[in-house]
Amino acid sequence: MENKVTLTMKEQHKLRMVIDYETGEVRAQRAAELLGISKRQFRRLVAAYRQGGIAALAHGNRGSVPANRISELVRQEILRLAKETYRDYNDCHFTEELAEQPEPIVVSRSTLRRIRRAAGQGSPRKRRAPGYRSRRERYAQAGMLLQTDGSRHDWLEGRGPWLTLVGMIDDANNEIPGACFREEEDAAGYFLVLQQVCLYKGLPQAVYADQHTIFQSPSQPTVEQELYGELPRTQFGRLVDELGIQLIAARSPQAKGRIERLWGTLQDRLVKELRKAGACDLETANRVLAAYLPKFNARFQVEAAEPGSAYVPWPQECDPLDYFCFKYTRTVTNDNTVPFNKHRLQIPPGPQRKSYAKARVELRHSLDGSLAICYQGQTLVTFQPAEPGPPHVGKFQPRSLPIPVTPGGPVPAKPTPKAPRKPTIPAPDHPWRRPLWAKKPK
Question: What is the b/e burial string over 345-380, where b = at least 16 CB atoms within 10 angstroms of the residue's CB?
């Protein structure tokens, strides 16, 4: 009995064309075109068919052992080591260990994986199947959620210092309700932006931010906080709690991807606006930003899914200065002073009580840099800053003050440091330079 020959679909198509050519139903040129080969190659097929029959059309390497095939002995040795010595090694680690043996076995990771899986050996590392992710729908109405973040970038393109752009974007319609440039990413910048939003647009329902220490306090609760069931809060966390705004913490940058993509757009477009205006400092950059935001919103703002606004108008009876400030609780010392950032703030006697020793007062650090000491809702004394402008967290300008600070007056400037003393060079005949046995010159 003759050996059976198995042909693939492509080889069967070649056989059909050769038979049609032999019977005269098709010409050689047409058959070559149908097979996608040259006429010369087709004539080779015909010659091979006439000499060897149907088997000549099968591939010549069919049934032969590949030259780079791993021997059965090596395959069995790999399986033995995988069961005995390296049973808890993953495929990549196992491949490296085989190559470092006294008698190395060099195989690729994919080959070793194929050998182990064919023998029913799974990977010791249990991988969890990737979860399904879907696109999050926008919030239905403007003001329901604002995403906030800061972008540190060379906004001035070398004409000035690097600045940080602090801003917010509405998740429902891509509107930027507020933004400002700061020297660095700090809580005062977020206070200023949220103040813009609350006074001109209204109170949003929620703010979506990352887990920066400006929003999430890393401190452990004190004994007093544990007794009252409170958790440590940052100044921004205290502010949104007083305003009734929900603060949502994002666990990854992708979670607040809308504002992350906003930075890419502004770093391309806003930089050019600052270049055209010739901005080279913080004040000029903020003026250019304020003029550019309406243009940006007109270009990129979209319609929300639902009409109307979820912003709550700012209550007219509430003073913004009572909310948008840094608040610290302090205990008055026996000499009626309040410690704050290495300063001693003096409280004068008031009409209600002469001494406030041991009293719990609230120290308010406003965005204009001024300080105020309040007791039971009443302001006892105010301190004006030496330089106007939003403060940095935990800093009262200037950083070092003489004691005590005069209430209601300007803060004394920091004393000018003395110039360093020049070293004294001894004369050539100085005793330090003469040997001990030398005589003193006359």
Answer: bbbeeeeeeeebeebebbbbbbbebbbbbbbeeeeb
Are 201 and 279 contained in the same domain?
yes
Backbone phi, psi, residue 93, to 5°: -65, -40
In a domain, 437, yes or no: no
Instruction: Provide mean pLDDT across the span 296-305.
Output: 92
Q: What is the mean pLDDT of residues 5-14?
A: 81
Mean pLDDT of the chain: 83
Residues 6+ apart with CB under 8 A from 48: 56, 57
Residues near 44 by beta carbon (within 8 Å), at least 6 away in sequence:
none
Q: How many whole angstroms separate alpha carbon 435 and alpha carbon 81?
A: 80
Q: Based on the domain organization, do 92 and 32 belong to the same domain? A: no
Domain count, the chain: 4
For 232, the domain range is 146-300
pLDDT in tens, 322-351: 999 999 988 999 988 888 877 788 888 887
Spatial separation of the C-alpha atoms in residues 146 and 139, rounded to whole Å: 10
pLDDT tens digits for 122-144? 877 666 666 666 778 889 999 99
Residues 152 and 296 in one domain: yes
Is there a single domain that holds both residue 294 and residue 328?
no
